[in-house]
């Protein structure tokens, strides 16, 4: 539990920087929330209400200060079929159930599974998101007036040059203000935020999803809720790691699971769609000076104020300004060093990184890419450890001694069995496990089979040197030291 004084500092430790960065994030969230609503097939206000609610609740209850959470494409794409077949009310119920599942994940401390995500997968995840962020800007850069390119270039120049003059105001905010002023002052005919969709003009209200509370309803929404919960937590925890590195701080992953779950649960009750952490907006926040919970909470509140009370002004912001910001984010997110490291790093690490990038970009599904990367990492790790396993054999006074070194598990079990000469008929064989460790049922079965084959040739077999963990596993699963063991092994 975080002490109250520490929690208070997570709100007040960087007030000026957080308020300014929160403004930038709020403005950048509006077109994205609208776009994600359109992806899911719902009214733009559903995504905007969600972004307000999720940002504020995760600011209060989440485990990572300065990380921005809101409605996202990753969760929106999972809801398309649900909305089409069953309507908005089922989406709201799914959002609530997904939140409850995430809360359960936090209580079960499942945030620790991030320990199994390798550095190569993280790099691939970051690079893939950078590419997706850039690709998402292409609709605003294709088939548009030439003046749009001039404005985007001007926006990028402002973003990169202003910090050389002053860091008092975040350069992305300067970009938005200057390009909006130019557009309005010269009456330029450019695509604006208002062209993305209508902004809400009322505050959200508490409501219960209008669905029948039956087992059939649960069967409809549960698969979607599980998928949304899993993808939302995966993207949130990955983004949390990235923000940890950027800010050189640590955070609480299990608390973040609870915070994301609470945010989605609340959001479903005010008419919003599910969401999760956003790497692009989080990077904008950090690069604009955001460091505490205040930046995320203020971004959510200002998003609602901008939409409901200042919608006429916000609608006039040129999309070119926001495109310039997102292009900056994609450039800053991509790990350019990883390209140089392709030759320097082991081939297996590079393959994992590239596979993660390709699958995420190809499918636009973060979960599939990360899952593939984790599985590949596991396969390469198992392959490497299996090749570090070794069996040596010596004959001493008529006793054949096999000494095992390394990790004996499913990938090295075959190597283990191939090391034995079953045609030799020594009076006695000793299998020395002093320098080895048995991990799973495959390796126990290999040991059993080896012992029984030697005994069938008339050889006395002794297994020695087992450590406590190996002994426990062999006593529980092994058959070679039990009466009728060979018959039991055959039965398995």
Rg value: 29 Å
* Oligomer state of the chains in this structure: single chain
* Physical arrangement of strands within the biggest beta sheet: 3-4-5-6
What profile does the largest beta sheet have? 4 strands, mixed
Please count the helical segments: 22
Q: Bin the helical content.
A: 55-70%
Mean pLDDT: 90
Report the principal-axis shape: elongated
Characterization of this structure:
The chain has 492 residues and is of the alpha/beta class. It is built from 22 helices and six strands. The protein has helices spanning 4-12, 15-40, 44-61, 73-76, 80-86, 88-107, 119-135, 146-165, 171-185, 215-247, 253-269, 279-287, 293-308, 311-314, 319-333, 336-344, 347-363, 366-387, 413-418, 441-456, 468-477, 485-491; strands at residues 69-71, 275-277, 390-396, 399-408, 428-438, 460-464. It has a four-stranded mixed beta sheet with strand order 3-4-5-6. Strands 1-2 form a two-stranded antiparallel sheet. A hairpin with a 2-residue loop joins strand 3 and strand 4. Helix 7 packs antiparallel against helix 15 (319-333), helix 7 packs parallel to helix 17 (347-363) and helix 8 (146-165) crosses helix 9. The radius of gyration is 29 Å and the shape is elongated.
